[in-house]
Design brief:
By secondary structure, the protein is of the alpha+beta class. The chain is built from three helices and five strands.
């Protein structure tokens, strides 16, 4: 689901709210999560999960084109740990639909002439 799909779904489920207001709410939530992570804080949404940052140590990498070694500096990367309720709901629903696979078409049985 994309951000615009999320906004459209929220607008359909909440007809009493205007779409520009929903866009502002969604953008504000994402901005606040991003700002908290940039400050090194953890964001926990009960039942959903927790956003935090993890520190990656400096290392030596390779340029894939030339094979030359490159020093990669230390950095913080965002990390998401799903909550128990989210994990349970995902696991009970089966495999997630990634939008890439289509269901197989039903087989047609040839009609005898």
């Amino acid at each position: 689901m994309t951000k615009s799909e999320l906004i459209a779904q929220l607008a359909a489920e909440n007809p009493h709210l205007r779409q520009p207001d929903i866009e502002l709410i969604v953008a504000t939530i994402f901005e606040e999560i991003t700002a908290a992570l940039a400050r090194g804080q953890r964001v926990e949404l009960r039942g959903f999960g927790a956003f935090s940052t993890k520190q990656r140590e400096p290392r030596t990498g390779r340029n894939p084109r030339t094979g030359e070694t490159v020093d990669v500096s230390a950095k913080a990367v965002p990390y998401f740990k799903p909550g128990k309720e989210l994990r349970e709901r995902v696991n009970e629903s089966g495999k997630p639909d990634d939008g890439k696979r289509r269901p197989a078409a039903p087989r047609r049985t040839p009609v005898p002439a």
